[in-house]
Amino acid sequence: MLKRRDAIATLMESRPKDLFVVPGLGSTTYDLASLGEKDTDFYLWGAMGGAAMIGLGLALAKPKLKIAVITGDGEMLMGMGSLATIGVQRPKNLAVIVFDNRRYGETGMQASHTDKGVDLVGVAKSCGIARAYDVEDETGLKKLAGDLAALNQTLFARVHIAADEPQRVLPTKDGVELKNRFRRAVAAAG
Amino acid sequence: MENQTGWPDQLYDVLKRAEVRQVSYVPDAGHARLIERCKADNDIRDVVLSTEEEGVALAAGAWLGGQRAALLMQSSGVGNCINMLSLINTCRFPFLTFITMRGEWAEFNPWQVPMSQATEPVLTAMGVKCYRADRPEDVADTAQAAAELAFGGDFAVAVLLSQKLIGRKVWVK
Q1: Cα gap A30→A109, rounded to integer Å
Q2: What would the mean pLDDT of A141-150 be, rounded to a whole number?
Q3: Does CATH place domain B7-166 in 3.40.50.970?
Q4: Bridge partners of B130?
Q5: Residue A63: pLDDT over 70
Q6: Residues of chain A positioned with their CB less than 8 A from the CB of B91
Q7: B132: burial class by Cβ within 10 Å (0-12, 13-18, 19+)?
Q8: How many Å apart are CA B97 and CA B160, to the nearest integer?
Q9: Among A9, A132, B38, B82, whose Cα sits 20 to 30 Å from the Cα of A100?
Q10: For residue A166, what pLDDT band results from cuts at 50, 70 and 90?
Q11: B152/A contact by beta carbon, under 8 A
Q12: What is the mean pLDDT of residues A8-28?
C-alpha cells in the first residue's frame, strides 16, 4: 500500500509552475510541508470541511491556474456537500484529491466512514464529477500527476494510503502570513 | 416577491459597486430577487451551496484568487457557519454577508426563533461586525458602509436585514 509521504512526493515530483495547492487540516498539510514550505501552498490549520470550497473559490477566480485540493478522508467527509456544489460548478481547473487512510489521524487514528465502506469516488461521480477515480499504486499516482499537469476537467481522485504516522512537519500557523504570501504568489502567476 | 420594493436591487447595486464577482447562497425567499439579479449578471458567478458554511470557505478562496465574494443567507444559516468563520478570523479575510432575518417579527414558524435570537451574538463572538437595516430607506447606505469596511479594511461584516423588510409570510396550508 502507498505510504503518504511517498505519495505526495511522487504527486509533486514534476509539479507544474501554475499549480496551487490547498492541503486540508491535519496530515495532508504536514505531507505538503514535508516537501518544503512554499508560498504556492495554502496550509490549513483549521476550517475542517472547508478545503474543497476554498479550492472552488480560487479556481473560479483564477481559471487559467491549476488548483489542487489535497485533503484527508475525514476532512472531505465533513464537507461532503461541497462535492455537490463543485459538481454544479465543475471548473475545469480544479482537482480534489483525497488521501484516504480510513482514519482520523489527528485524534488517535479512529476509523472513519470510509473504513466502513463509504465510497468517496462514488459520491463524487454521483455529484456530477465525471472524472473520478481510485489510485492504489505508484502507476496510478503517476497517471494522476500527469492528469494534474494537463488539468482540463474537474477531477476527483481518492488515493488509498497506509495508516502510518510519519513525523509531523509543521508550516507556519500565522493565518495572515499564509493568506498574504499565497495571494501574492497567485497574483504573480497571472 | 411583491413586497420586495427596491431594496434588493439596491443591494445588487452595492455588490456591483464593490466589484463583487462571486455570490454564493442557499436559496432564500427574502433574497430571491437579489439572487435572480446576480444570476442574470455575466460578471457575477453565482454559486448555489448545500450549506452556508461552504460560502464562507468559498469567499476565502475567491479572495486568495484576487476576487471579492459575498454570501447571501437567512439567519438560520448563520448557525451553519460558526466554525468556518475561524478561517476568516484567523487569516483576517475580508468577508461580506447579507442576512435576511427570520424569527423576529410576524414569524409564523417558532422553529426560526432560537437561531434568530442567536444570530448577532454568534456573529459577534466569531469576530463578524454586525450592521442592521430595519427600514427600506436604510438598506443601501448600511450595505454600502458594510462593503467598504469589509473590502477596504479586511474586516468581516454582516448586514442584518430586518424581517420587517421582507414582510409577513403568507402561510398556505
Answers
A1: 16
A2: 97
A3: yes
A4: B158
A5: yes
A6: 175-176, 178-179
A7: middle
A8: 9
A9: B82
A10: very high
A11: no
A12: 96
Other beta carbons within 10 angstroms of residue B153's beta carbon come to 11
Instruction: Give the residue among B172, B167, B75 at the shortest CA–CA distance from B115.
Output: B75
Tell me the nearest-neighbour CA distance from B36 into chain A, angstroms: 17
Can you tell me the mean pLDDT for B149-155? 97
Length of chain B, in residues = 173
**The domain containing residue A25 runs over which residues?**
4-189
Q: Is this complex scored with an ipTM above 0.85?
A: yes
The answer, for A171 touching chain B at a CB cutoff of 8 Å, is no
Count CB neighbours of B97 within 10 A: 29
What CATH number is attached to the domain comprising A176?
3.40.50.970
Average pLDDT in the B146-173 region?
89
Contacts of A54 in chain B (CB under 8 A): 57-58, 60-61, 64, 87
Whole-angstrom distance, CA of residue B1 vs CA of residue B30:
8
Q: Indicate the number of domains in chain A.
A: 1
Q: What is the pLDDT of residues A68-102, one digit of tens each?
A: 999 999 999 999 999 999 999 999 999 999 999 99
In single-letter form, the type of residue at position B150 comes to: A
- The amino acid occupying position A160 is H
